[in-house]
Amino acid sequence: MTGGDIPTNPSVPNTTVLSNFAYVDQLWVVAGLSGICTVPVVRGELEHGVDDHPYLQSALDVLPDEIPVATISETVTDRETVVSDHLDAGEAQAFALADAHDGRLLTDDGDARSVAKEQGVTVIGSVGVLLAAIDAGKISEQTADGWLSTWIDEIGYYVPYRNIAAYR
Question: What is the largest CA-CA distance in the chain?
Fold first, then answer.
């Protein structure tokens, strides 16, 4: 995927969102989002983490066929540099791509969410992805509750509510 091939209004996940859905072996939910693509640094973070977290291999397996990896333009690199003091590398590059292409950043990281909101970039977290899947009729609320509980109980995912209905 080259800079010219980046989807209009891309949905750009960072490692955490991909990791959460990989953990429950449901990456098809993320792969089915409109304009989905990720960035090279996120791919590298997944590659680096797979030895300690083998479930990340399923995330790598959907790259680049189901979730393309964008080629980073100079414009994106410039935007990434501006926020790199405040965000980790994957979040900075994902933010920069979403910002440069009027997209949305998919992240659960508090600092990345704050920077994106300050810059006017739409932010959606893992819970938002669950809500979108429910609204699209792809999963039930009960299924989303199960995945959310698994994330909380097994990988230490922190959110204010355990029940997806509380986010409506």
Answer: 44
Sheet architecture: strand order including 104-106: 11-13, 104-106, 122-124
Alpha helices (H) in 4-140, listed in sequence order: 15-23, 28-31, 40-49, 56-62, 74-83, 89-100, 110-118, 126-135
H helices within 87-125, ranges in order? 89-100, 110-118
Collapse the DSSP code of 37 into the 3-class scheme (helix H, G, I; strand E, B; otherwise coil) and give the result: coil
pTM exceeds cut of 0.90:
yes
Q: How far is residue 57's CA from residue 47's CA, in Å, rounded to a whole number?
A: 8
Tell me what pLDDT residue 5 has: 80
Distance between CA atoms of residues 118 and 45, nearest Å: 25
d(CA 132, CA 134): 5
Query: Which segments in the chain show pLDDT lower than 70?
Result: 1-4
